[in-house]
Amino acid sequence: MTDGDCIFCQIVRGELGTEFVGESENAVAFRDVQPQAPVHLLVVPRQHVPALRDLGWEGGSVATELLELAVDLARQEGLHEGGYRLVINDGPDAGQTVFHLHVHVLGGKKLHEPLG
């Protein structure tokens, strides 16, 4: 798959009309189309990065920005009091199905274990 074929790259470029619920210089956030909780947002870098393992040490600022945006959105969605979960699936064995780094922000109900 090329970057041009990546669904999240298409969303970032505005090609699919997806509404952003938050954005920063290097990241955007939108609602998951298959939510697993009442609030299920995805925070993705604007630049195509297939997985967390592909960031490397130089990607620390991108990772920080993704997490800062995720925390800001959790606050915006009213999740701070009850809590929320941030999930990054890294690779197919972890359940990653879209190979563009993304952080899941999940909340709005009591979340249960186990994860997988």
Can you describe what's shown?
This protein is α+β, with helices and mostly antiparallel strands. It has a single domain, classed as HIT family, subunit A, CATH 3.30.428.10. Helix content is 20%, strand content 20%. Strands 1-2-3-5-4 form a 5-stranded antiparallel beta sheet, with helices on one face. A hairpin with a 3-residue loop joins strand 1 and strand 2. The two termini are 27 Å apart. The model has no long low-confidence stretch (mean pLDDT 93).
Tell me the major beta sheet.
5 strands, antiparallel
Can you count the helices? 2
Shape estimate: globular
Strand content: 15-25%
If strands are numbered along the chain, what order do they take across the biggest sheet?
Answer: 1-2-3-5-4
The CATH superfamily label reads HIT-like
SSE order in H/E notation? HEEEHEE
Give the number of domains: 1
Task: Return the CATH class.
Answer: Alpha Beta
Features of this protein?
single chain, 116 residues, alpha+beta, HIT family, subunit A, five-stranded antiparallel sheet, 2 helices, 20% strand, globular
Brief overview:
The protein has a 5-stranded antiparallel sheet with strand order 1-2-3-5-4, with helices on one face. It has helices at 7-12, 60-76; strands spanning 22-23, 27-31, 39-45, 84-87, 103-107. The chain has 2 helices and 5 strands.
How are the SSEs ordered, and which strands pair?
Elements: H1 7-12, E1 22-23, E2 27-31, E3 39-45, H2 60-76, E4 84-87, E5 103-107
Antiparallel strand pairs: 1-2, 2-3, 3-5, 4-5
